[in-house]
Design a protein that fits this description.
single chain, Rossmann fold, six-stranded mixed β-barrel
C-alpha cells in the first residue's frame, strides 16, 4: 500500500513522492525524480521520516515556568492553553491597541494553508495587527528590482539556458540551495551541451564542483564593483549594445559618465575593481569580454549577494550589466534582478481587510519590540524568533525582557532556540500529519497535494484547529471559519476556485488522491520579451516606460548609500571598515544541502553527510596554526562560536564561511557550540529595503585545539 504526497518546506525542490505503508506506518518514501528531478541532487528527502517522526517531537501544550528563554515548561491541557492565549490576546489589545500584535516571519509551512495566514485572519477580524513586508530571503532584490524594471518578474524559465552561449552563476548555488525543481538539471544539460559556465562566489561551492565550472572568487559585498567594472570595460572596448541602451534604457548616459570617470575623475575600470574585489585585472577584463561576445549570455543572480549591507546597489549594477550587453528579453539571456518567473495561476486564501494599515520590514521586528511597539508575538511554524534572526545574543536579551514583549506564543515541532522563548508552547503537526497544497518554487508546471500519512504525534495539532477554538472564545468563530471547519474545506474551496482559470486541473478528489497534478500543457517564460520585440505597444511598467538605469524615484528619496544610478557604494563591515583591524575576516553563510534553513539540524544521519564547520583558507589557517578538523573560536563584538575548522583552498583568503541554520546551543559562558552564524551577524538593516545583511560580518579567529 502507498500514499501519494509531497514536501511543503521552504525548499525549492517541492518534491513529489509515494509513502510506502506497512501496518499503517510509512516505512520508506519513494521520490518522483522524473517529475521533480531536484531529488536526484538533494539528500534532504532521505531524512524526512527520521526527522519528523523523531522522539524529540513536542507532544503536549506547555506553559513557561521559569524565566523566558530558560526552556523550563510544564504540561497543560489544550483548553488551558487556548484560554491563556485568548486572555492575553484581549489584554494586549485593550492595553496597547491592535497594532501591538504581530505574527512573526516564518516559512516552516510553505504551502497554501499556512499557520501565519490563519493567525492574521483572526487578528484582522479582531481589530487588526501590525503587518510586515519583505522577506529574509529576497528583501533587497525584490524591493529594488521594480525600481529598475517596474516588476519583480525579471526571470526566465531555466529551459532557455540551453540557448545560452555563456552562463554566469553570480552568487548562485542551486546544487546546495535546491533552487527549484528544474534549474540544476537544466544546468547539467547545458554543461553537457558544451555551454561555458562561470561561478562567481567567495567560496568554491558544490554547484561549481558538480558542473566542473570555472570558479572566480570575489570578496563578499563587492559584487557591485565587479559589475560596474565589467560594464565599464565593455564600454571602453566599444562592445556595448548601443541601440538597446538608446531604445530601452532611461538615464544610461548618467551612469556612463560615472563609469568612465567623467563625474568624479575615477574610471571604474578593471584596475579600480581589482583592489576592491580581489579579482586580478586580467580576469575582470576577460569576464567582460566573454560576456559581451557571447550572444546571448545569461547571468543568474543568486540571492546571497543581495543579503549584504550594500545589496540593493549590487542588484542594480548587475541589471545594468545585463542591459549594456543587450541580453534583456532574449531567450538564453537574462535581466538580473530578483528573477521571479511568471507561471501558472496558483490557489490562494484571501485575508479579510486589516484595519491596521501600517507595516514594517520583516527584518526590523526586534527594533519594534525594543521600542515597545510590539507587545504580543505569534511565532507559528518558524524558527526566526531567534535562530534564523540576526545577532542572537541581542535578540535573546530583548525577548527576555517581559516589560518589552508581554506575551509570546510559539507553535513548533521541536524545542528549538525560538521555542525556548515561548510563554505558551504548542506542539504542531508535521507535513506527514496534515493535508495541504504546495506550489512549485520559481518555476514548474505542477501543483502538489500533501496527504496525511500518519496520525498526529501526541496531542499535536495543526494551528488552524486551535485558532478555531480561540475564535470561538473571542466570539468570531463564524466569521473566522466561513463555514469551513477543517483545513481540507479551505483547500478544496481554493482549489475549486483555481479550476475556474486553470481548467486542465482534475476534480479535487482525484487531485488529492494522486498527490497532485502535472500539467500536460507546459509554460515557458522569458522576462521582457514582449517589450523588446514590440516596445511601442509594451512599455516597461516604470514611470518612464523604460528600464530605469537612472532612477528619479531614488534620486527624490535621497537615501544615503542609494544614489540615483547603480554606482558602487561601500557597505558596512567590509574590508574598508575600520573594524577590520580588530576583526580581520569577512564572514559569510551558505545554505547547506543537508538542511532546509534550520529543518533537519537535529538529524544525526544528515549531520554525518555534511558536518557543521567553519571553512577557512589553507594559508589563513596556517598563519593561525589551525589544522583541518581543529577547533577554533570565531568571534566579534556580538558573540562567539566554537566550531571545527575545514581547511581548504576552495575559499578566498580573508573570508570565513559557516552554513546557516544550525540550532543555537550556548554554553555557560555564552559561546555557541553548534556553530550558528547568527551569533555573529548584525541587526543593522540595509539602507533602502531595510533588509537582511547577514553576509556582511567581520570576525576574528583564535585556535582552541588541533586534532592529535
Amino acid at each position: 500500500m502507498f500514499v501519494n504526497s509531497a514536501g511543503r518546506f521552504n525548499c525549492g525542490g517541492r518534491c513529489s513522492f509515494r509513502a510506502v505503508m506497512e501496518e499503517g506506518k510509512p516505512v520508506r518514501l519513494v521520490f518522483n525524480a522524473e517529475k521533480t528531478p531536484c531529488v536526484k541532487h538533494c539528500p534532504r528527502h532521505a531524512g524526512y521520516l527520521s526527522t519528523f517522526l523523531s522522539e524529540e517531537r513536542l507532544r503536549y501544550p506547555m506553559k513557561r515556568t521559569g524565566k523566558r528563554g530558560e526552556g523550563a515548561f510544564a504540561r497543560i491541557s489544550w483548553d488551558e492553553a487556548v484560554g491563556i492565549i485568548t486572555e492575553n490576546w484581549r489584554v494586549v489589545k485593550r492595553q496597547y491597541g491592535p497594532a501591538s500584535r504581530y505574527v512573526n516571519y516564518s516559512s516552516g509551512v510553505s504551502a497554501l494553508a499556512r499557520p501565519d495566514y490563519f493567525a492574521k485572519r483572526l487578528l484582522a477580524l479582531d481589530g487588526g495587527f501590525l503587518d510586515k513586508y519583505n522577506s529574509y530571503s529576497t528583501a533587497c532584490t525584490a524591493f529594488v528590482t521594480p525600481y529598475i524594471y517596474g516588476t519583480t518578474l525579471s526571470g526566465s524559465s531555466s529551459v532557455f539556458l540551453l540557448k545560452s552561449k555563456l552562463i554566469i552563476l553570480w552568487g548562485h548555488n542551486p546544487a546546495e540551495t535546491i533552487f527549484g525543481a528544474y534549474l540544476m538539471e537544466n544546468l547539467i544539460h547545458a554543461k553537457k551541451a558544451g555551454i561555458p559556465i562561470i561561478v562567481l562566489d567567495p567560496r568554491r561551492n558544490m554547484t561549481a564542483d558538480k558542473l566542473n565550472a570555472r570558479w572566480v572568487p570575489l570578496r563578499p559585498g563587492t559584487d557591485g564593483a565587479l559589475a560596474c567594472a565589467m560594464t565599464c570595460e565593455i564600454i571602453m572596448g566599444q562592445k556595448e549594445d548601443r541601440p538597446f541602451l538608446d531604445t530601452f534604457c532611461e538615464g544610461f548616459d548618467k551612469y556612463e559618465d560615472y563609469l568612465t570617470g567623467k563625474t568624479d575623475g575615477v574610471p571604474k575600470s578593471a584596475e579600480w575593481a581589482a583592489a576592491i574585489t580581489g579579482i586580478p585585472v586580467d580576469t575582470i577584463r576577460g569576464l567582460a569580454r566573454e560576456y559581451a561576445d557571447a550572444k546571448p549570455a545569461a547571468i543568474l543572480s543568486g540571492w546571497g549577494p543581495q543579503r549584504t549591507s550594500n545589496g540593493e546597489q549590487g542588484v542594480r549594477a548587475i541589471a545594468a550589466l545585463c542591459c549594456v550587453a543587450g541580453n534583456v528579453g532574449k531567450e538564453g539571456g537574462g535581466a538580473g534582478g530578483v528573477g521571479y518567473v511568471k507561471g501558472r495561476f496558483q490557489p490562494a486564501l484571501r485575508y479579510p481587510p486589516n484595519p491596521v494599515t501600517e507595516a514594517i520590514p520583516s527584518f526590523t521586528w526586534t527594533d519594534e519590540v525594543d521600542r515597545g511597539t510590539i507587545k504580543m508575538i505569534l511565532n507559528l511554524g518558524g524558527n526566526t524568533l531567534l535562530n534564523q534572526h540576526s545577532d542572537i545574543n541581542k535578540t535573546a536579551a530583548i525577548l527576555r525582557d517581559e516589560s518589552k514583549c508581554a506575551f509570546i506564543v510559539v507553535s513548533d515541532l521541536f524545542m528549538t532556540g525560538s521555542a525556548r522563548f515561548a510563554d505558551i508552547l504548542l506542539p504542531a503537526t508535521s507535513f506527514l500529519e496534515t493535508a495541504n497544497i504546495t506550489m512549485p518554487w520559481e518555476e514548474g508546471d505542477y501543483l502538489l497535494h500533501t496527504n496525511k500519512i500518519v496520525e498526529p504525534v501526541g496531542e499535536s495539532r495543526f494551528e488552524y484547529d486551535w485558532l478555531c477554538e480561540a475564535a470561538r472564545k473571542l466570539g468570531l468563530f463564524e466569521a473566522f471559519t466561513e463555514g469551513k471547519t477543517s483545513v481540507d474545506d479551505w483547500l478544496r474551496s481554493a482549489y475549486d476556485e483555481l479550476r475556474t482559470v486553470e481548467q486542465e486541473l482534475p476534480p479535487y478528489g482525484k487531485f488529492r488522491a494522486e498527490g497532485g497534478y502535472f500539467y500536460k500543457q507546459k509554460t515557458a517564460y522569458t522576462a521582457f520579451k514582449k517589450q523588446i520585440e514590440d516596445f511601442a505597444h509594451n512599455p516597461f511598467p516604470t514611470p518612464s516606460g523604460k528600464i530605469e538605469i537612472y532612477s528619479k524615484r531614488l534620486a527624490d528619496r535621497a537615501i544615503p548609500g542609494i544614489p540615483a544610478i547603480p554606482a558602487y557604494t561601500e557597505g558596512f563591515e567590509t574590508i574598508h571598515d575600520p573594524l577590520i583591524k580588530r576583526y580581520p575576516f569577512q564572514l559569510i553563510g551558505w545554505h547547506t544541502r543537508r538542511r532546509c534553513h534550520s529543518i533537519h539540524d537535529n538529524n544525526p544521519r544528515l549531520e554525518k553527510l555534511d558536518p557543521q564547520c567553519c571553512v577557512i583558507n589553507s594559508e589563513d589557517a596556517a598563519s593561525y596554526g589551525v589544522r583541518d578538523g581543529g577547533i577554533i573560536e570565531v568571534f566579534n563584538g556580538r558573540g562567539r562560536i566554537r566550531i571545527k575548522a575545514r581547511v581548504t583552498d576552495g575559499i578566498m583568503r580573508g573570508v570565513l564561511a559557516i552554513a546557516q541554520g544550525a540550532w543555537w546551543q550556548p554554553d555557560e559562558e555564552g559561546a555557541d557550540l553548534r556553530g550558528n552564524i547568527n551569533t555573529l551577524t548584525t541587526l543593522r538593516p540595509t539602507p533602502l529595503a531595510q533588509g537582511n545583511p547577514q553576509h556582511s560580518n567581520l570576525a576574528a579567529v583564535i585556535l582552541v585545539t588541533n586534532p592529535k
